[in-house]
Design goal:
4-stranded mixed beta sheet, about 150 residues, Immunoglobulin-like
Length: about 150
């Protein structure tokens, strides 16, 4: 007997399944999860796959690895229709890969095109207790040198 409330049981379960099936058919395709790309946006930086050998350092006899980076604004579209002027190195998000071998000396020339001072910090060395000890002023270039003493 129906008492004004939806009775629970096989009929209610059948009705719920029919409603869900109907919604699946009636929803626009852009709202279905199968159409959502989880691969990132075009401007995100990692837009292609890389093999392990491509990510490994190229063998060479030099113990001095020199890199040049430019701190610059980049229009980064991080959501559909949403973008910001991101601070990047060489316009790449995340920053470019700097590859060296254990024991190499790494020298980074950093050119700052931003309107604020920037610095270059690696997590190889123990903390010095100083926040950004060396900064590169706007429109200047600074050189950072350190030993790759940890893997």
């Amino acid at each position: 007997m129906f008492s004004g409330r939806l009775q629970r049981g096989p009929n209610a379960l059948f009705l719920a399944i029919i409603i869900l099936f109907g919604l699946t058919i009636a929803l626009p395709t852009e709202l279905l999860l199968e159409d959502v790309s989880m691969g990132g946006r075009d401007k995100v930086g990692h837009t292609e796959s890389h093999s392990e050998s491509q990510l490994a350092c190229s063998p060479d006899d030099s113990y001095l690895k020199q890199f040049s980076l430019t701190a610059q604004y980049t229009d980064w579209e991080f959501t559909l229709g949403g973008s910001i002027d991101a601070w990047t190195f060489d316009g790449i998000i995340p920053a470019p890969l700097l590859c060296a071998n254990l024991g190499d000396t790494i020298e980074v020339s950093l050119t700052n095109t931003l309107e604020v001072p920037v610095s270059f910090h690696v997590h190889l060395n123990p903390p010095e207790g100083v926040v950004n000890p060396e900064q590169v002023a706007p429109e200047q270039t600074g050189v950072f040198s350190f030993l790759a003493n940890q893997a």
